[in-house]
Amino acid sequence: MKKRKAVVARKTKETDIKIDLTLDGKGNASVSTGMAFLDHMLDLFAKNAMIDLKLSAKGDLAVDYHHTVEDVGLALGQALDKALGTRRGIIRYGSSQLPMDEALAQVAVDLGGRPYLVVNMACKKRKIMEFELSLIREFLLGLVNQGRMNLHINQPYGVEAHHAYEACFKGMGRALREAAARDPRSGSVPSTKGVI
Questions:
Q1: Residue 81 burial by Cβ neighbours in a 10 Å radius (0-12, 13-18, 19+)
Q2: What pTM, to 2 d.p., does this model score?
Q3: Dihedral Cα 18, 35, 118, 180, nearest 10 deg
Q4: How far apart are the first and last CA of the chain?
Q5: What is the per-residue pLDDT across 145-184, written as a single tens digit (0 to 9) for each?
Q6: How many CB atoms lie within 10 A of CB 3?
Q7: What is the sign, positive or negative, of the torsion defined by CA atoms of 128, 110, 79, 173?
């Protein structure tokens, strides 16, 4: 069966991003954004989604991390959307409940074409080193809008910030892996409307 792949390049006055994504991969990732924490989260995401991901991003990090984080989300969403194509024959829905030490992440994904994001984080820490954790929401907004997906992340508890966000990114990967999988019983678009 043909592998679902996408290559995306996004260049603005603020960022230059290149992505090579294979949806039916082995979880191999090579990520370089200039932000070690985001690189780590994307590596965990790719591993758990079983996608192969080559991602390089150069941005105006001396100004702020915001532009680069948001544009990485936009470009990754675009790559996922492109790799999914018509979405014919996919399962469409996926969910995960993933523990990471004291933190728990509950994640649900719908690849039905309608972007929506809900994020409830128990962990209220604002930073990991110099990385502003509020930027993760900006990344996720870009991802769901360009990826045309519905994403709900609920964290009922979690104290340590690294564990809290690691659980979320791993959970996102697991939920996406399930939702994007080919359904062996269906070759049609998974919608009563007949189109996504």
A1: buried
A2: 0.95
A3: 40
A4: 22
A5: 999 999 999 999 999 999 999 999 999 999 999 999 998 8
A6: 10
A7: positive
